[in-house]
C-alpha cells in the first residue's frame, strides 16, 4: 500500500476528483502533516455543499424528466470553474436560475399544447352533439311512421283473432308468449272443468282464452301474474274491445282497417311482415349505421389532429432541449461535482492558492493513478504535484485491499474476513487460513468417498449463488473436499470402508515404496495418532508465534517481537513439546526433564514474555515501574497457561478422527444387527456426511481462529474502498 499526496489549484479539484473517481484507484483520507496546518477544510469556510447539491439536484431531476435523450456531461471552461471555487453559492444560484428558465420554457410549451388539445376536444364535442341531434330527429320521424303502421296492423290482427263468442264465454283473456303456452297449459289441466283456447296474433304472441267456473278465476289471475301474461285490457283499448262484443261493428272495423292498409300499398294478413314496414326498418338500420360511422370518423379525425399537435410540441421541446444540451451537460457536471464535495469520503484541505488531497492506493494501481492524473494535466495544460510514498508511523490505519485469489479460492477469503480485516501493518493471512483450515479438517474427516461427494457438490453449486453465505459455503466445499480426499488416501478409508486400497494392492501383488496407510489408524493406533497431532499443534502454534513476530517487525514494534505473541510463545511451545516427548520416550522422570535443554527453552520463552512489557516501559521513558513488572508477570503467566491449553486443545483433532473411524465399526455392527451390511454402512455414511461434517468444520474453525490466528492476527484493519464516480 502506498500513500498519495496531490497538490492542485482549487479550480481543478473537480476535474481531479472526476478522473480519480472514474479510475477507482484511491481511498481518500484526512490530510495529515504539520506543513498543511494553515489550510482549511471546506466545511470550515461556511459552505454547505450538501445543501447546494440538494438544491441543484432537485432542478436537474425535473429537467431529466423532460428530456428523451442521454445527457452527456460537459466540463465547464476553466474560468467558470474558478468562479465556482471563489463563490460556490453564487454559482449554484446562477445554475438554478438557468435550470428554472429552461423548465418554465418547457412548461409553457406544454401548457400551449394542452390548450390546443382542449380546443380540439371542444370542437369534436360540438360536432358530435350536432350529429347526434340530426340523427335523433331523423330517427324519431321514421320511428313515428313505423309506429303508426304497426299500431294499425296490430289492431287489425287483434280484431281478427278475437272471436266474439269465445270472448263472451271466457272469464280470462290475455296475450301470452308462444314459447310458454305448454307450461301454462300444464298448470291449467290441474283444475277440472278448466280449459283454454289460443288464437295467434304474430309469430311470437297469441291470445289465450280461459274457460271454467268462477271458483278458479282468482287462481288463473295469479297464474297470469306468474307467467307475465298481459291482460287484454292492457293490450287493446276499450273501443276495440267493444267492437269485439258487437259482431256487426267488428266486421265493419276489420273492413275499414284493411282498406286503410290497402291504401298504403299493403296487403294485410295475420302475422305477416308488410313490405313498407320492412323498408322503414331498413332505413332506420341504415341511419344508425351511418350515424355510428360518422361518429367514428369524427373521433378518428380529431384523434389524428391531437396526435399531430402533441408531436409538433414534442419536437419543439426536443429541439429546445437539444439546443440547450450543452447547458444541461454543464448542470450534470455541477451536480456530480457538488455530490463529490459533499461526500464524506472526500477530504480536502483548501487555501487561497492550493488544495491538498491525500489517500492510499495499492502499489499495483500506482500506474493507473498516474495515468488518471496525467489526463487532468493534459486537459488543464499544467502539471500537478503528486507524491507517492511508503507508509509512515502515522499511517497505522491505512486501508488494505482484499486478497486477490484465483478461481474457487476467491470466496474462501471469507475465512479471514469473518475473523477481521488485515491492517497495513500485518501479514494478510488469506492463503494461510485456507491451508490451515482445510489441513485440520482433513485430519478429522479423512475419507476419499465422502470427500468426493463434497467436492462434487462444491463444483456443481459454485456458480449457482451470486451472493449470501451459500456463495461462500459452496465454494469452501471444494478445498474441504480435496483435503478429505488426500487424508482419506493417507488413512486408507473410502466411505468408511477401511483398508480397501491396501487389500486391492495386496491382491494385485503391488508394494509401495513407503509404509501404507501413511497415517496411524485412529482406532488401533491411538497413541501414535495423538503424538502426531501433538506435534502438528506445536508446529501450528510456533508458526503463529513467528508470524506474530513478523507482524511486530513490520509494524516497527521490535520489542513486541520477543513477547507472548512472538518468540516468547514460540520458544515456550517448542520446549513444551520436546519436554513432553522426553517424558513419554525416556520415562516419567521429572528431574531429568527439568535438567534437559528443552525445559530451558520453556523457561527462556516465559522470561522473554516477562521482559517485553518491561522493556517497553523503559524504552518509552517510564522506567522500571510496578505496572510494567505486573504486566510482565501477566505476560509470563499467559504464555504458560495459554501455550499449555492450546497444545492440549489440538487433541480434539485426534478425538474427531477417532470418532470418524469408529463410525466404520458402528456401520459393520449395525449391518450384522439388521442383516444388511450395505444398509448399515449407508446409515453411518449419512451420519458422517451430516453431523460429523458440521462438527469437524466447527472444530477446525475454532482451532484456526483461536489457537492459530490468535497468535498474530488482530483484524482491526480498514477495507480499501476506492472513491468512485459514475461515467456520466
Question: Brief description of this entry?
Answer:
The chain is α+β, with helices and mostly antiparallel strands and 728 residues long.
Strand content: 5-15%
> Mind telling me the C-alpha Rg?
51 Å
Q: Please tell me the overall pLDDT.
A: 81
Q: What structural class is derived from the secondary structure elements?
A: alpha+beta
What is the helical fraction, as a range of percent? 55-70%
Which spans of ≥5 residues are poorly predicted at pLDDT below 50?
266-273
**3D shape:** flat
Supply the number of helical segments.
Answer: 25
Tally the beta strands. Answer: 13
Describe the 3D structure.
- By secondary structure, the chain is an alpha+beta fold.
- Among the domains are: 2-103 and 335-400, no CATH class; 106-334.
- It is 65% helix and 7% strand.
- It contains 25 helices and 13 strands.
- The chain has helices at 13-23, 49-66, 78-86, 88-161, 164-169, 181-188, 217-226, 232-235, 238-245, 247-263, 275-323, 325-342, 366-380, 414-419, 430-444, 448-461, 469-491, 500-508, 526-555, 567-586, 590-595, 597-619, 626-649, 651-674, 677-708; strands at residues 2-8, 27-29, 172-177, 195-200, 205-211, 230-231, 348-350, 355-361, 385-389, 399-400, 493-494, 497-498, 718-719.
- The strands form four sheets. Strands 1, 2, 7, 8 and 9 form a five-stranded antiparallel sheet that branches. A four-stranded antiparallel sheet has the order 4-5-3-6. Strands 10-13 form a two-stranded parallel ribbon.
- A hairpin with a 2-residue loop joins β11 (493-494) and β12.
- α2 packs antiparallel against α12 and α15 (430-444) crosses α17.
